[in-house]
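Let's do one together. I've listed all components of the complex below, 854 residues spread over three lines.
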Amino acid sequence: MSTPPTRNSCETIPAHRGRVREGRTVKNLLVLAGVLMFLVWSYYGAEIHLSQLLSRDSFGQIVIYIKKLFPPDFSPAVLQEALKGTIETFAISFMGTLMAVVIALSIVFFASKNLIYSGLLYELEPRQGWKRAARRVPYLAAKSVLNILRTIPEMVWALIFVFLVGLGPFPGVLALGVHTGGVLGKLFGEVLEDVDAQPIESLQSTGASRLQILCYGILPQVLPQFISYSLYRWEVNIRVAAVLGLVGAGGLGQRIHIAISLFLENQLLTLILAIYILVTAVDYLSAYLRRKVM
Amino acid sequence: MRTVNSTQQYRLAEIRKVFARDQVALDRIVLTVCRGERVALIGPSGAGKTTLFRLLNCTLRPTSGKLWIDDEDVESLNGKDLRRTRSRIGSVYQQHNLVPRLRVIHNVLAGQLGRWATLQSLLSLFKPADVEIARQALQQVGMPEKLLERTDELSGGQQQRVAIARVLVQNPDVILADEPVSSVDPSLASTIVRLLIEISQNRHKTLIVSLHSVDLALAYFPRVIGIKEGRVSFDLETSKITEGMLEDLYSGNFRDHSMTEAISERVQSVAYPSVG
Amino acid sequence: MKESNPSLIRPSDKSFFPYIFTALFVLAFVDSWRRADIDPVVFFEKKGQEALWKFLTGMFPPDVSWNFISLMLRPALETIQISLWGTLIAVAIGFPLGLLGTHTLAVRGILNDAELQGAPVRRGMRYGLYFLARGLLSLFRSIPEFVWAFMFVRAVGLGPFPGVLAIGVAYGGMLGKVYSEIFEAVNYRPLEALQSVGANKLQIFFYGWFPQALPNFVSYTLYRWECAVRASAILGLVGAGGLGQQIEISMRMFNFNEVLTILIILFMMVAAVDYISAKTRAML
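Okay, and this is what the predicted structure of the assembly comes out as:
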């Protein structure tokens, strides 16, 4: 210390500020206490045994399990099966994402305000209440459909579609397509809603119809972002497609389920390696394509 | 604090700094700066002033050549010793380099970090230690009321003064400033330069300031070093600098009309002022 | 719509890329169609339509008897608890690994220049740690949380705990990667200033790095928590607690009205969590 330190810091702070700070501190402390209680409650509720996990017994079990995984089974039959599963997983994620794009594109234009009932394009529209209200109907309908599609997780959709169309990769494609369709619909809608208005304005002033404005003024602006989001969701979907098989929807997950149920740990490791390679490869491919597009 | 017998603050011998792709930023720099000296660095942008500044405050190491600080060879320094040496050198930057989301008091007390233990500095973020020191430093730069404000709510000139307050708290042997006034308005510029000079005089600290404005350099500093294309172009007492030298220093850089105008104007009007 | 991709490629790169891309795309499409057993006709056949009708009519009205809802209460709470501790463990894993995997902090840039120039051994060690951290993060996030859950069920037994661990590990990998991106995007100038004061790496981190990264850090962590709620709701499918188990049971028993009830509960939970995290973000 080069200068004599002065302690009692609180008194030196100007009075009104001190009060403000004190008020905030009490509130902060209350919030902190609440969060801590919440955490403790969760700790017991989720039956977490971190201490036990680190204890010799439990930790030993994990080590034994890891040991069982090695070495991975690289026999030709297993490798062939892993390869088949990998390609199938790829196919599911690919078709599922494409289906999602189709679903999102067919709904999203109804679900963005500036295209359907408000803003620049509708400035000069007669202000008849019922007409505007009628335009809101498809908007609200589209929004709620997207919400429902998005809120139900892929795995639940997969369960439903397995019931509807039977076992196999097809229900997996449908599950991915429907859920991701909702997600992409929301993302695309956000892109559409903050599209740059100037080109639209100038096109409108040339007398272009709304469809023409959509094709010439809006789509060229949003397409790169649409593609970028679709690729991003594809990266997510490849991971999901790898596990959809757990509920009977094909791909690597189905084989993983079998390997785990039959205690074939060495095969399991081979399949996990296959997932790792596939996921990493798709990440790189998607990143490369995104760079090309943006 | 250790006692130093030497009068030499900095000694640079044949310093060379090369960046990636063989960009030579500094070449064959030979310099000596004594304790308590006040030196201005001038030169066109891209001449290597900032690189020199970063060598002097031990942020970078020279590619070749020797740099002594207080007769200590910087090359041998590492870890704790390196940090101790850094803590004896205060730096003021062009863009004040404060952490925007922190309160002013933490930015000011950051000057203590070289002396504080890690845990102590972490605790201080929750309950500031040494409030009085921070307050005094802010008092000295003329804005004690800003102690608890968030730093990004201050104006550019105020932020630069916070940066100076941080150096005051750091209480180093040397103060380095890299274009401290090029992002504040002109009327404030001389105030800040005077503030730096005042601090170095009162506390007998070495002061090295690189300046965009030749005016300020010639007006306030007894010694001026011109740097061009990574080399020392001249290193003289202010009274011995001629218009020709300055023109030579900035030649090839005449696109910046206002600057050359300022140079010739200055050389004609300001004779050899001395600042108290 | 992806077919329109080639036209978006800037005309400046006159390569074969658009043609190769289109060819590969068509190939992948045709092959995937076949491999994924895609068969839209199913929905127009009698059997498919019957199943659809049975499902849709079976869902209504949802089962809102207290008997059933009280049964669901515990798994629903369990879902929240799993997501919370899963996210906490994910932060505990992702934060240190993300730090080590931040190259401006660990190996390059102005903060390391003076320390690593002419010190090949130290440089090598730093790079070793850096790549180790990056590799671990990549491994953690590339294996889906379901597979982690499966393995943890084997290792520590059934119940919510394997779910917590699965989310912790898988999300730890994702958080770590994004944290390192956030840390890298931080303005380095204040950090340089702190270093010149003589601060050590940790001090620079607490005084300069973390305060600047905080808003993005919190915001992304909250976003992951939202995802974790959805994930832990369905991890039960592999026996790792939460609502998932119940959905599967009801599905298999063809009790679609119960399925709808569970989905509504899930919907409300997700909405509540979204609301809490939006509030927390607004506080920053």
